[in-house]
Structure formats: C-alpha cells, structure tokens
User: What shape does this take?
Amino acid sequence: MADAIQHSCGLVGVFGTPDAAQLAYLGLYSQQHRGQESAGICSTGGREILRRAGMGRVTDALSPSDLTALANPIAVGHVRYSTTGSCHAANSQPLLVNIGDAPVAVAHNGNLVNAGRLRAEYERRGHLFNATSDTEVILHMLADPAYRSHADPLAAVMRDLVGSFCLLLLHPDRIEAVRDASGNRPMCIGRAGAAWVIASETCALDMVDAEYVRDVAPGEIVTISERGLESRSFGAVGVRRGHCIFEHVYFADPSSRIFGQNVHRVRKEFGRRLAREAPVPADLVVAVPNCARCAALGYHEESGIPIGRGFTTNHYVGRSFIQPTQLIRDLTVRLKLNAIRDVVEGQRLVVVEDSVVRGTTTRGKMQSLRRAGAKEIHLRVASAPIRHPCHYGIDFPQHDELIANGRTVEQIREYLGVDSLAYLSLEGMLSCVTPPGDFCNACFSGNYPIPIDPGFRKDAFEQQQLRFVDAHGVLRRP
Ligand code: SF4
Assistant: This one.
C-alpha cells in the first residue's frame, strides 16, 4: 500500500430522476476511496440550486435530512481530498455561486497547474476569493466578461486551464461534464433507466445500477439536459495524452474500468510481470492489504507459489494515505494491519506491495511480519520507484521525502529491513496498459506530459492569505 500519499477527489452527477440526490449519495459512497475529507451534493429542480456539504466521510458529511432537502431531479456530488488548498469547510465541494442571476455549482477532480497565476491576476483586479482551492478560480473565469463574451464561454475557459481537471457543472436545467485534453483522470457516463449518471469511476455506475455507456473523451464537454446528451470539443490543441497510471497502481477501485481497462486485471498483470522480472524461492505469497491483493494474485499465478493471508485488516479505519497528517497516517496504519503469526511464522515470504512512497509505513508492516516470526521477507513492489512529485492531483510528498529519490534499491532494502527488494520496471508497468504511450508516468520517470509549475505548493493560497491577516486576526487585502 502506498504510504503517505493522498488522492484528489471523486465526482458524480445524476440527471432525470426524482431520486437524483439519493443516487448521487450512493455514487459518492462507492467512491469514498477517492477522498474522505469532505463530501457534498448540490441539486436543482429547475430554479435555485440547493447545497449540502460537510467534513469527513459521506455518511458523516450528509444526513438523511440533507437528502430529503435535496430531493430534486438533477444532482451533482463530490468527495474531496485536498491537493490544492487545505482541509477545511470552505474548500468542500461542490462550490456554489451566482454568476449574474444564474446559480452554478462546480465539482472538480484534478489539479490546475496554472491556478496560482490565474488567481494572482484576478486578485490584482480586485476579485475576492472565499476558499483556497484551485477550483474557485474556474468560477471567477466563468464570471469574467472577457470569457462571457465568447460564443462558447465554457469552452474558452477550459482552453485556458492547464493541468488535470474533470469537472461537473450543475446549472438549473443541465449538467455539464468536462475532461481535460490529456484525459488525466477517469470520467464515465452511464444510464439508469431514463436517468443519466456521470462519475469518476464505473464502480459508481455499478452502485446505482447504471449501465456504462462510454467515457467522457479527453477535451470533451458533455451536456446532459432534457434534450438528452450533447457533445462538443472545447478545442484544446497540442495536448499530449496523460492518463494517470497510478490510478491503476493504487487509487481506483479494482472493480472499475478506467482508461479502457479493468483495474483488477491491470493490477494482476503488474503482479504477473513482477513475478517474471523478480522471481525468488519462497513458501508463501502475501499481499499487503488492500490494494496489492490483485498484484499478489498475479504474482502467485505466475510463480506457482501458494498465496496466503498474512495480515488481518481492520475495516473500520480509513485508508491510511487519505489522512492529512503523517502522525495520523502512521497511527491508522498500526490500527489497521496486524500480521497473522500462525500463517507467517517460519515462512519465507514474498510480500507484494503496490507502491512505496516515503517507506515509513511499509517499514512498519515489514517489522510486524518479523515480529510475527517470518523467516525471510522478499518485498516485491508492483510499480516502479517513485522519484518525482505529482502535479496533477495526487499529493505525493516533495522529492526529498520520497524514499526512492537519491537512494539505491539496496539502500531502500536496508531501510525497510527486508531480505530482498525488487520493483516492477517502468517498462513492465507500461506493458500492462494500452496504449502505453497514452499514460502519464511522471512520478516514476520525471517526464511530465503537461507543463508544470515546480514552485507551486499545495498550501500556496493559504500562505498568500496569511500575509494579509493583521495583528488582530482580521483579513486585510493589500
Ligand atoms: S505523476 Fe504519477 S500520480 Fe501524477 S498523474 Fe502522473 S502517473 Fe499519476
């Protein structure tokens, strides 16, 4: 399991059923793995847009009375982990504003690389920002007369965004779904009877019994209204494809089909390839729960080494990476996993892990296997060494905190306290996805498909605001 990383967000939109908010709630529930900091739903019956949102998981953030209040035929929902802007209520989504007389709500998955520059420009022109996420700048652009004078204002705004973005925009009469031209994050469309459902992952479609229709294409704007589904391109040019391969390594649900392939199958192929690249004599293959299970199965099938359950899992603790501080992450890992002595004692183990980021939690898990009496531990990682931060919505630590940055595999092995260590090669990873050239692998290779702003920090807008707080704690604008 990747330690000390956070993921961005999950989206769902439902059009054309009185139960839209309920279905959106279920869709969010099934995508809880994409973010646990906050959850929110906006809905409309054709005039005003209503909003309910709160901190924490879906079940904590939204109550039955919220869903009753939101009962309307069109709804958009969002679960969040912060990649730009910290964890507080003002940053929960969907964001809801009036542009002119018309309400609009926006929900965003991804990370805008040029948000800092765009926001600074608007602030210079006197715009006030309520939140500190990168998403809010999109609303300022949509309200900007310079964009509103375009024949297609939304397309004009999208052309000027740089980075990773899947967006759902809720208007009183329609939902608009947008996917950036690199197709960095997944987004799919389904039908549940007469209703339309749009979601980050197909597991949300399954949850509400919606049939998969197709993905939102990179660079596409899909509008769903009483007229049905309409599509247009927003006209981005010269953008490389860059599907996030880490969605397959760790983030997405194994049942989901993203970027044209089932996540479980891809993970299993990672494991098979790993077994061919890094074989080792052993008694038992053990998966580090939960994400490495598919890869461990692949390793077992390819190597013929029996597979067993080496850890118990406490299902009542959230995913460790999703917690916003290192201390909490470490404690939840300890709460979450316990080695099973009767299984691992005296055994030569092949331990399959999906990824290693800082290495601290992986080391903790290896120690617990040792304490439980494992004779040998051969760690096999079903992805390449992560040496570079992500700028597109996955909150990896900076270079110096990544265990693989500037260290050899032997040095990492020593730190983790295992008998042998091998990673899947980047070529091996890419051989399991199609077409390999359409995938972003920048955190492994440093080859960023979308231009980045290396100096940009997740908390940049908080830092900016702090400069304006006076001695009495009053926010002052310069
Ligand atoms: S840098 Fe890594 S985590 Fe970020 S989008 Fe690319 S593959 Fe995904």
Q: What stands out?
A: Residues 1-7, 462-478 have pLDDT under 50 and may be disordered. Residues 184, 244-246, 390, 392, 394, 440-443 surround iron/sulfur cluster (CB under 6 Å).
